[in-house]
Amino acid sequence: MPGLYIGATSGYSGKNMVGIGLGLKFKEMGLNVGYMKPVGALPLEKDGKLGDEDAFFVQDVLGLTGAPEQVTPVVVTHDFKVQAFSGKSEPAVPRIQEAYQALGQGRDLVLVAGSGSMYSGKYCGVDGVTLCREMDLKCVIIDRFQKDLKYDYLAIMKESLGDRLAGVILNDIPATFMDEVNELIKPFLERIGIRVLGVIPTDTIMGTITVSDLADRLGGKVVSAHASADRVVERFLIGTMQVENFMTHFRKHQNAAIIVGGDRSDVQLVALEGDAPCLILTGNLYPNDIILTRSEVLKTPIIIAREDTFTVAKKMESILSRHKLRDKIKIEQGAKLIAEHIDLEYLKKELGV
């Protein structure tokens, strides 16, 4: 029974997207696909059983019903860490192997999702490199573009995994970097024996978040135009400048949430009239009646955030780069990106399915 480990050079690289996309596509091809996430970093109790939040979600999308203790045999709770650091925990790999064998019964392929990077979990012997070796799994590694690609890391992974490395996926590549990837980095990787299974371009849909989800992640609350809280945010703009300068920048940034001090009604009004998807007012300051009225009329939600503008902007930057794959439209788009940009036939051949 072949298994495919889906790892990454860092957290928040697109492992769920790739796992769901591959799972859905392989099922379309007629394969009986199983799924597990051996190490769960997001503990969640469901129906009285402890599992991993992402694992529950992926199983649901793929239409699978594995027992949480098999799907995620190792859940990283505080107690687990204490046991591991004190040297009192039992070896986890045998438990993972047993669960893998049970989940693989009758399956053509089991997708094994990594947690964090390929080295995450090294302190307790459940890192990606160790699991691939101990369980004899083929592996794909996702490298998401974040100012650059981690080609040194990928080269080390080739040395560590050898033929177990089926290939790499370069994810979220901006248009401005695409030529360099195709003409320089991809040929380099393949020259040192690393198959590039696909290059996935930056996609605006995958980088969006709804206003309501954004409010939750910021720890704020929507105070107006609640019916429009499903509007989509792609980016953000800080409204600390003079109104004239702000207007110039605002015209260049569509679908940008405007982060502005709660006392800057001049900038707030310009943002409302310019059809921003939402306003985020900082400093826990509520807008005046004029702003609230225009917000309702124009159906532009306003979020009140407690922190100062700088802190909220830093949070926004993190949220927009790391928020979870949850919306139906993102799931569908992610599956489409995998189908269009990943060499699935090569991967099937490599896995022997």
UniProtKB/TrEMBL annotation:
Family annotation (InterPro entries): DRTGG, P-loop_NTPase, Phos_Acetyltrans/Butyryltrans, Ser_kin/Pase_Hpr-like_N_sf
Annotated SUPFAM superfamilies: HprK N-terminal domain-like (SSF75138), P-loop containing nucleoside triphosphate hydrolases (SSF52540)
Residues in DRTGG domain copies: 213-318
Superkingdom, taxonomy of origin: Bacteria
Gene3D superfamilies linked: HprK N-terminal domain-like, P-loop containing nucleotide triphosphate hydrolases
Matches recorded under PANTHER family: PHOSPHATE ACETYLTRANSFERASE
Subunit structure: Homohexamer.
Protein name (Swiss-Prot/TrEMBL): DRTGG domain-containing protein
Protein source organism: Paucidesulfovibrio gracilis DSM 16080
Lineage, uppermost ranks: Bacteria, Pseudomonadati, Thermodesulfobacteriota, Desulfovibrionia, Desulfovibrionales
